[in-house]
Amino acid sequence: MKNTKNIVIGALLIAIVTMVVGYSTFATQLTLNGTAEITGVWEVKITGIEAQDVSEGCDEGELKYTNTSATFDAKLVKPGDSITYVVTVENTGTIDATLDSATFTPEEGGSPAISYTTTDPTTSLGAGEQTTFTVKVVYNEGTTEVPEVKTKTITGIIEYVQE
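-> structure tokens emitted (163 positions)
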């Protein structure tokens, strides 16, 4: 009986060892490694400013721009004079952009004889596309006296967001 027990225990141990060896022979560990990279480029910027429709005798002033700002310094001579500035905005990135807001605010307390009119840039600006908007400065025609305050500044904020 003791021999039989030992034989059964030995057989069970051999069966367990065989199962372990068989499992490890047919088991395979799989490993997955991955990396994600963002390759999109967000770059909406000002790429130019130019003066158009400059009234005779007026000076468009020095035109300057960077990626995020454009500056002009108009010199108007008499009532009715005007200069229109065309600002170019380009999406040089790879991500499409949507116009979120365009706000143009003339300063308070500036010359009442100067007025501004503006247009908004395009609402949708796909990758590689460009758009323009205009700022027209006018020495108001109905002005009959040279005003005490002779300047008026405008600030424009154009904000594009990812689509």
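The radius of gyration is 37 Å.
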